[in-house]
Amino acid sequence: MKSFIYIMGVALSVVFCSCEKQGEQEQGTEQGQGEKPEPESPEEPPLVENWDLIEITRAEVGNSNYEELLYLASLAGLVNRSSPEIFLHSGQAYAKWMTEMKASGYTFTKKRLSEITSLFLNRAKGYVLVDDKLEKTYIAASLAGVLDAVILTAALASKAPYNSLQKLADVRDKDEAWLADYIKQHSSQFNLNAIVNNASFPWTMVDFAIANRYPWCSNAKSDGAVLQKLYYMLKPNSPHYGWGVPYNLERMDVRFGCEHNGVYTVPGINTMSLSILSSKQLKPYDRPASPVEVPARTGVHYATIVFSDGDNTSYMLDLFSRNTYISHPRVHEIPLTWMYPPTLRTNMVPVHNWYQKNLPATNCYVGALSGAGYTFPSHHEFVADYFRMTNGMLKDCGMQYMVLMDDAELFTGSSAGSYETFMKRHTGNLPDVKGFLYMNYLGYAKWQGAYFFAGDAPVVSFRYFMKNDDKFTEPHTPETIAAALNSAPRDINSIDAYSAIVVHVNAPSSYTVEDMLVFKNLLNENVVLVNTEQFLELIRKNVKGNRG
């Protein structure tokens, strides 16, 4: 292990001893290709343990003071690389995680921006000059990581004490093609285990990327040829941290990554101080997988409710931890399921620990879509290695069930081209996963409960999609779903007696735990709510199917 902030890079690189195209591999077997030469990762200094953090909030810098926020984030990346020191956060959203960190031994001392600059500016070898609109942040952050530099606008660079620094690079007239050439020429200086971008908040993810020396892709729409070049500089099956759909709209962006070197997305839209949250000083708390207690009732219809916004780690950082969701005082009264990004365990350790400790006994977590990150497995270039990596990550988190998202048809009429054939081929690469829920990107409940078995693991599509949003084409309300469930089939040996409901959370108007408690009261005695672990176990034990 090289440095405390190099966790994800190391964790991923040990898995990729061979990478094969999905069409060239069978269940649990490989036909190796010649390995691509891999650039050496930069050496990092050993971790210097430090439990006394300097704390500063975004508001104290100035919520709209983007140039100083960017400067501070870049300085934090340099400083936190060898010793956790600077903790920049947004205030209330981080209160839970700071409490968790205090329980681990951290203390926090507030300091002003000027004080932090006086303490640490001498750690920078110089600065990278960025444009005033911060549109070239992605280029500046890429170079700052390998040049050990902070990022400054011209206005900041002209002021004391910043004017004492040497200008190491000027990226104001550079573009993504120039950046790709620079990374290729200096590949040994970069950590090519991940790539970063963030279109929404130009100062977030910066400390994490600089601390790790990760390259960036464009914060605006990329040229496909250039983005492909950048992705193939990475090691196979590397994550794209952040958000900003660098290729095109969301669906095509996710497909583009997984089709080009198996790049999968880990959304982290508004995350600050990830270089601290991923500190190796923080030890993950894991709940061991335990036997699932399955209800024994017959003659009822079983339903499961799954809250989701995919692998959105920034929602786990704030939204899902609120008292409208998993902290709701009555959440234990209803068996709910929460999609859970397994990457939290390594790059948001206190967040992971809080969720693990605060899961109600009636609720459960399932691996978010589709496992290690947001990807479409049927398009994933190195899917066998990806699934093996996912299996290990889920096992570390104590999860035995996961959600698959894809844009492939569940059944195509051609057995050779069906998702059933695809999953049966790869079940051996997910030996510890006992069951799957499936959602199609083009319609979350498009397949209305259709299922198959991949080995002994059921793959069950969502029957209903609950979303308080007119933009979606298949909105089901709590009232319409309850009416359908109350008169639904109740033969425990038939898949028709099981309904999975996905609740998409991505806005303040989204359905909450309170809404689900109201929904529960709309159901009659013929409907039994269970969490997804119980739901999939009921199907696995009772529903017949071809388990080849």
From TrEMBL:
Gene3D superfamilies: GxGYxYP glycoside hydrolase, C-terminal domain
Residue stretches making up the GxGYxYP putative glycoside hydrolase second N-terminal domain: 124-182
Domain called GxGYxYP putative glycoside hydrolase C-terminal: residue spans: 300-540
Region described as Disordered: 25-46
Signal peptide segment: none
Coiled-coil ranges from the UniProt annotation: none
Superkingdom of this protein's organism: Bacteria
Claim: Kinase is one of the keywords in the record: no
GO molecular-function term, one example from the UniProt record: hydrolase activity
GxGYxYP putative glycoside hydrolase first N-terminal domain sequence ranges: 65-119
UniProt keywords, alphabetically: Hydrolase
Stated name of the protein: GxGYxYP family putative glycoside hydrolase
Organism (species): Bacteroides vicugnae
